[in-house]
Specification:
Elements (H helix, E strand, L loop, with lengths): L6 H18 L4 H8 L3 H8 L7 H11 L14 H26 L7 H10 L3
């Protein structure tokens, strides 16, 4: 399967989603700037694909827009009903993970490093 996204494509995807999410909240770039602590020029540059963002910037924008960080990476070609189905599927998968995580990963007594070493040294090959 051919990868549809190169670096420029990912920048464009984030830029489109930033603008879409900002407009859904009826915010100007200036308002988002004040809420996120980023400069108006930087937000404009992101939306125009001339600047890239760090994880810290994505987190600040997500917090200001009250969205999850993954929403900046949703495929732009999805119609609204498909986007909602995609989000519903993601939300369901996340709910299953959260429900099963404690049972699968946190059950029983956690091993200490020295317990692992003893097990290795006393276990025959």
């Amino acid at each position: 399967m051919k990868n549809r996204y190169d670096e420029k494509g990912v920048r464009s995807l984030v830029a489109q989603n930033l603008k879409r999410l900002r407009e859904l909240k009826n915010l100007s770039q200036l308002s988002l700037s004040a809420m996120s602590g980023l400069t108006h020029n930087f937000i404009n540059d992101i939306e125009n694909c001339t600047k890239w963002v760090s994880a810290k910037t994505i987190a600040r924008l997500a917090s200001a827009l009250e969205v999850e960080p993954y929403q900046f990476f949703l495929p732009g070609s999805l119609p609204d009903d498909a986007r909602l189905a995609y989000l519903k599927d993601f939300q369901d998968s996340l709910a299953v993970f959260v429900r099963e995580y404690p049972d699968h990963y946190l059950s029983g007594k956690p091993e200490r490093n020295d317990d692992k070493r003893r097990t290795k040294s006393t276990t025959p090959p």
